[in-house]
Structures are given as structure tokens and as C-alpha cells.
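Page 37, continued from 36.
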């Protein structure tokens, strides 16, 4: 088993072409070819392969099972570049569609999470089904990594890091600049209150909801930015340090005073 005291991470702020998987796969492939060779985790935006297409027939056409082309492509890239790849895609079961997060390791091991908090201000809440399980925590290269999807970020109880059960929270998103202030400050708050690194992986470009450029961030456990988006489609990367995180938690153990609770669905 590989154990890393540091974790090199990279966000690929894909400029998503709505409904065009081939184009989006091509963009991801080009960006992946530019990551550092020792990268451990790559994070893609929410629904990176399709974007939000709010036509039910079109969504059904684009949605896939876990055995479909999107997951197969991510499995290929994870193995080829020896990285874990996280993001979300438009998933389908026999009766429902989901905004499904994924964490796929180079070994091929897969972890999935269906977005629980659907954005009901848009058509997402009426066309997709909410997930009914808590965010998973994945053990990868000695790090505990939790993933959520976009709107989940607004709900701190959902993100609560009880007893330091995760070291890094990944947030894959399509969060427009009209709500950029909330996005950035919610990421900071989640990092501070949970004493964990936080990656906010946003798309770039624009769609019918607005523009998205320069809104990907990586924050440390104090809520300080250690990487942020520069130019459009520029990779956002940072090295996370587990030893520093553990020392901070030992020196300032506010997590000991957290309230105990359990989630009910």
C-alpha cells in the first residue's frame, strides 16, 4: 500500500460543451497530458462530460450506467496517469437519473456518491433523484478523502468532519460567478470548521446560468488559499501536507468539542 505524507492534487477547470461527451473527453485528455508526473489526485468539475442539459429526453439520452463510456474513460485515464480521478457525471438506473460523484483509483477501484442536495431553484430537483447515503470517505495513499457535489456545500451538517474522519474534502461543482462570493467563503468555512483541506473544482467557460472562470480553489485547514484559478483552462495544483495537518489538529484540537449527532434520511 502506498502511503504519502504529501498529496499532490490538480483541478482541471474544464470548459464544458453542453451535451458533447466526445468534445469534453478530448478537453480532459489534453489537460491530463499537462499534469505533473507525480500528481496523486485529479479533480474534474460537476457533470464534466455533459454539463447541465435540462431537457428530459436529452438527459435520458446522455445519462449512463456506471458501466458506460464516461466511467470507462475515467478508468482509462486513472490507470494511464497513475492518479485517482474525481468528479461527477449524469448517471442512470432502470428508473431514475442521478448527479453521481465518482472517485476512481488507478487500480480500477471505484467509489460513487449520488448528490443529495439537488438545486431545486433549477430543474435539477425535478428531473434528477437525490442520493440517500452520506458522503463516502475513501482511503487513498494514506489520506482519508471525502467527496460532495456542488450544492451539498451549503449544508454544514452534511459536511461535518466528526472525529477527523477525513483529511481532504473534494467539492466538484458548476458554481456560477453570480454566486462566487458564497462559493469561495463556504469553501473557506468548511475548511476552517472541519480542520481539513478543501478542493473546490469548478468548471470554466459559460452556459445559460452564467460564467464560471477563475472559480477553482484549494484551501488549507486554516481556510487559506494555497492555489486558485488563473487563466481559463489553467490547471490548479497544490501539494497537501499530512504532517502539518496532523500537527495543527494536535496543537489546536477544537474538533474534540464538536457536537455528536447522527444523520437521518
Amino acid at each position: 500500500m502506498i502511503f504519502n505524507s504529501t498529496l499532490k492534487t490538480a483541478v482541471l477547470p474544464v470548459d464544458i460543451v453542453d451535451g458533447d461527451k466526445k468534445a469534453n473527453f478530448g478537453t480532459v485528455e489534453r489537460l491530463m497530458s499537462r499534469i505533473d508526473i507525480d500528481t496523486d489526485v485529479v479533480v474534474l468539475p460537476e457533470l464534466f462530460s455533459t454539463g447541465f442539459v435540462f431537457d428530459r429526453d436529452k438527459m435520458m439520452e446522455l445519462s449512463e450506467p456506471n458501466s458506460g463510456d464516461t466511467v470507462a474513460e475515467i478508468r482509462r485515464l486513472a490507470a494511464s496517469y497513475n492518479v485517482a480521478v474525481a468528479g461527477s457525471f449524469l448517471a442512470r438506473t432502470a428508473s431514475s437519473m442521478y448527479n453521481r460523484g465518482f472517485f476512481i483509483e488507478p487500480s480500477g477501484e471505484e467509489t460513487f456518491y449520488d448528490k443529495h442536495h439537488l438545486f431545486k431553484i433549477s430543474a435539477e430537483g425535478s428531473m434528477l433523484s437525490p442520493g440517500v447515503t452520506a458522503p463516502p470517505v475513501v482511503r487513498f495513499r494514506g489520506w482519508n478523502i471525502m467527496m460532495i457535489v456542488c450544492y451539498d456545500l451549503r449544508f454544514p451538517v452534511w459536511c461535518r468532519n466528526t472525529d477527523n474522519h477525513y483529511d481532504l474534502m473534494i467539492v466538484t461543482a458548476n458554481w456560477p460567478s453570480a454566486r462566487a462570493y458564497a462559493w469561495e467563503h463556504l469553501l473557506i468555512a468548511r475548511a476552517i470548521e472541519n480542520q481539513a483541506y478543501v478542493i473546490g473544482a469548478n468548471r470554466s467557460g459559460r452556459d445559460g446560468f452564467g460564467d464560471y472562470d477563475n472559480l477553482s480553489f484549494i484551501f488549507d485547514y486554516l481556510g487559506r488559499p494555497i492555489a486558485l484559478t488563473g487563466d481559463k483552462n489553467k490547471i490548479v495544483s497544490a501539494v497537501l501536507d499530512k504532517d502539518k495537518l496532523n500537527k495543527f489538529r494536535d496543537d489546536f484540537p477544537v474538533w474534540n468539542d464538536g457536537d455528536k449527532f447522527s444523520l437521518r434520511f
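The two ends are 35 Å apart (CA to CA). Flag for discussion at group meeting. The mean pLDDT is 94.
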